[in-house]
Amino acid sequence: MARTLVFDVNETLLDLAALDDLFGEFFGDAAVRREWFAVVLRNAMTMTITGDQSNFVDIAGASLQMVAETRGVELPASALGDIAAGMRTLPPHPDVVPGLTALADSGLTMVALTNSPLATAEAQIANAGLREFFSDVLSVESTGRFKPAAQVYHHAAEVLGTTPADLRLVAAHDWDIVGAMRTGYAGVLITREGVAVNPLYPHPDIVAPDLIVAAEAVVAAER
Fold first, then answer.
1. Long-range contact list for 187-193, CB < 8 A, 24+ apart?
2. Which among 34, 57, 92, 117 could disulfide-bond with 96, CB atoms 3.0 to 4.6 Å apart, if both were Cys?
3. In the structure, what pLDDT confidence band is assigned to residue 136 with cuts at 50, 70 and 90?
4. Are β-strands 206-208 and 4-7 bridged in parallel, bridged antiparallel, or unpaired?
5. How remote is the C-alpha of 127 from its chain's centroid?
6. 169 to 26, 111, 187, 191, 198: CA distances (angstroms)
7. What is the pLDDT confidence band of residue 1, given thresholds at 50, 70 and 90?
8. In whole angstroms, what is the distance from residue 154 CA to residue 160 CA?
């Protein structure tokens, strides 16, 4: 039986660079968007490790305030709402639709698994025109943990009525891949700009520069 493909959403499927104009407007430097999202991920992981709970949207807002404070920037009252709206309407990377189409044409089942709240995730995927590709959209919110906590990947397997060994995570984050692989998933790392294979982690089953190349390798592996 072919493995079900489990896709990360933000940065893997959706292009956060669409927020660069907003960050350029608020901070005078579009590159701050990368700094902000790194702080978001750090805060989410820290809260998981320490056992604290919050949702990804609130963490994103707190992280924005932190970055503004460290940079001595006073944000307009609309800033958080503008970025939240931008997150809900992110476009897919150019390789995503062709890659997903190739996977769908091969008959593989695909689901999404994200740190975002379910309502946000559903809006993101629908607004990006990708909902038709996924049989289900899953969020970490019911686990009280964020990726790469093992509970998240086990919960996804339970919801899907299968085992981790029957799942393959596709992500552009090495920490997401290692979390999934440590629980029994296979892993596909998309090496988007700034992404490299981490020599400290188990090597992903497939490493590809984009989803088109990854789809070819996945289809071949599942034959």
1. 188/5, 188/214, 188/217, 188/218, 190/12, 190/214, 192/11, 192/12, 192/93
2. 92
3. very high
4. unpaired
5. 16
6. 35, 10, 5, 14, 16
7. low
8. 10
CA distance 158 to 197: 29
User: What is the structure's pLDDT at 54?
Assistant: 87
* pLDDT for residue 35 is more than 90: yes
142 falls in which pLDDT band (50, 70, 90)?
confident
Helices (H), the chain: 20-27, 32-50, 56-71, 79-88, 96-105, 118-127, 150-159, 174-182, 211-222
- Give the model confidence (pLDDT) of 163-176 as tens digits: 999 999 999 999 99
User: Residue 113 corresponds to which tokens in the numbers above?
Assistant: 């698994």
Closest among 130, 107, 29, 128 to 72, alpha carbons compared = 29
**CB 114 within 8 Å of CB 140:** yes
Residue 40 token pair: 């978001």
